[in-house]
Design a protein that fits this description.
Blueprint lengths: L15 H34 L3 H24 L8 H31 L3 H24 L3
Helix pairs in contact: 1-2, 1-4, 2-3, 3-4
Amino acid sequence: MPKAMDHPTTTTFPNPYRTQAHRWMRFNMVGLMGFGLQMLTLWTLVHWSGLPASISVAIAVLVAVSHNFLWHERFTWRDRPKTDRARRWLSFNASTGLISLISNLGVTMVVMTLTGLPVLPANIIAVISASLLNFLISDRLVFRS
């Protein structure tokens, strides 16, 4: 009786480019959710609170940064040890949080001044301008393995 054909054991080597591509996609998914939250917060503050645009942008960014850290911990970099979470939170806020705050405030105000765009479209430009830098800092510094 013929034996079932034996299949040689194959070893699958991790592909660092595939891992990075998947992480980049997850990072952007979290970023899109955070962006939606930031826009909703910004719109609400601008239309209902009477706060100046700069204060509204700062608050909206801080809300989005907090949201994004939580999702990055649970989704984007879920393979990182839980014991380092406090260090990552501090590092995330001191790096990408600060960059997001400065770039969002700076770029939004400059775009509004130079183009006359309202705060929401100007802030969209600011968010896009900082996204790649925030990924690189998050991946290489905050959530490094």
